[in-house]
Structure formats: structure tokens, C-alpha cells
Amino acid sequence: MSFTVAAFYRFASLPDCAELRPELAAFCAAQEIRGTILLAPEGINGTVAGSADAIASLMAHFRDGEAFSGRLAGIDVKLSSAAEMPFRRMKVKLKREIVTLGVAGLDPAARTGTYVEPSDWNALITSDDVLVIDTRNRFEVAMGSFAGAVDPETRKFSQFPDYVRRSLDPARHKRVAMFCTGGIRCEKASAFLLAEGFDEVYHLKGGILRYLEEMPAEESLFRGGCFVFDERVALGHGLSELGEAAHSEESASLR
């Protein structure tokens, strides 16, 4: 049996996230789904695995279920597969942010950078006047990244604002393009850059995962593997598994 893995997020108003948690945990348990889902007032973020039917039911629950009242109708989902169950258990957690940047007042649901489709990404990042930044941590960057991208050398995403304020200048860096694993970090990173006065801010729609899924290997500018937050460890083109190894619970908190 193979398993369907779903990585998803959605910035949406969920002030009732504490009430949603037990219902969502029970739904996943009934469907024998495992993984981690984060709930916060600003939205939802998670990676889970289960049978194809179970994952389809969960996505339908997000989009059409009474509990979410249509607030997750536009949820972003990337699907891949795993030969073995990549998670040990199911966790639904409450958080202040679904991806922790630590900057108050940002609302990616209202204002974020310009999305770039994977098919248009190569042309953008090979332009001479574009600064390309990998918003992930240095462990992930070391495993694989786009050729020529800047590594901010952060250990965690909350260090990204310090990097921007220390190293970037809106007057010099007129056009900035960013990317991350699945797109969620760039939603906040681009919202932050806009708030800091940068005018042209772009980010890869669907992140590296969608790029690897859609871009032919012979046209790809991505080098190495894309670290993922489960026991598959890294994915390559076509979202194929590059290796199997267990990693600690701590590594999952870097997402």
C-alpha cells in the first residue's frame, strides 16, 4: 500500500481555532490520517498522510465542511506519495502563528507579494536585476536550492526579519524574488518586505514542491533535493523520494 501525502496551508480568519481542534483531531483519527496540523487565529498549516480516499475526504472537509464555514475554500494543497507511512502519529496543535515570523501586524490574507507560476520562475530568477533569496533555514538550503540564490544563513524563520534589516535595502534591491518549501513562509516574508518599503516582491507559487512537480527535470534550475518534514527526508523532480531516514521531532519544528 502506498500513502498520499498532503502539504497544505491557508491564511484565513480562524478566531475559533481552539474549538476547531478537537473536531479536526477526531476527523483525522476516524480516517486513520497521521501527521501534524497547526491551527492559529491567522489560519491553518499542515502535512499529513493517509489513504488517497482519506486525504480526499480531509480536503473536502476543509473546503466544504460545516466547521470551517467556507473559510478554507481556497486552501493550497500539494500532493505527493510515500511507499510507507511517513508519520508516527496525528497531532493537531494550537499556535499563535501558523508559520512563526514574530512580526506583529502582518496579514498575508490581505497583502502579500506577487505570485509567480513555476513555468515563469526560471525567466524571473535569471534576470540580472532580480535578487533571489531562499527563505528556508541553512540546513534545508544545504540539501538543495536554486542556482545562484542567496542563503540568509538562518537557523529558524523568525531570524529572517533581522537578515532583511541588516542586509537588504529597498533603494538598492528594487526587485526581490523569494521561495520556500511549499509557499507559506514566502507569504509572510513577502508581506514583511512590502511593509519594510520594498516595491517589487515576488514569490514562487506553491514553493519548491510545486516547481519540482511541474517543471521538467531538463529545464530545472533547482539543484539537489528539497527537504520535507517527514520521514521521506527529501524529494526530487516529480516529487520522487530521494532517500529514507528518520529524523527527530525537533526538525519538524523548523517548518
Automatic annotation (TrEMBL):
Provide the taxonomic classification. Answer: Bacteria, Pseudomonadati, Pseudomonadota, Alphaproteobacteria, Hyphomicrobiales
> What keywords does the record list, in alphabetical order?
Oxidoreductase, tRNA processing
Q: Which gene encodes it?
A: trhO
Entry's HAMAP family? TrhO
Question: Per its UniProt record, what Pfam families does this chain match?
Answer: Rhodanese, UPF0176_N
- InterPro entries (UniProt xref): Rhodanese-like_dom, Rhodanese-like_dom_sf, TrhO, TRHO_N
Give the enzyme's EC designation. Answer: 1.14.-.-
**Any transmembrane segments, and where?**
none
The family assignment reads: Belongs to the TrhO family.
Catalysed reaction equations from the record: uridine(34) in tRNA + AH2 + O2 = 5-hydroxyuridine(34) in tRNA + A + H2O
The protein's name: tRNA uridine(34) hydroxylase
Q: Which superkingdom does the taxonomy of this entry point to?
A: Bacteria
Q: Where is the Rhodanese domain?
A: 126-220
Reported function: Catalyzes oxygen-dependent 5-hydroxyuridine (ho5U) modification at position 34 in tRNAs.
SMART domains, alphabetized: RHOD
CDD domains reported for this sequence: RHOD_YceA
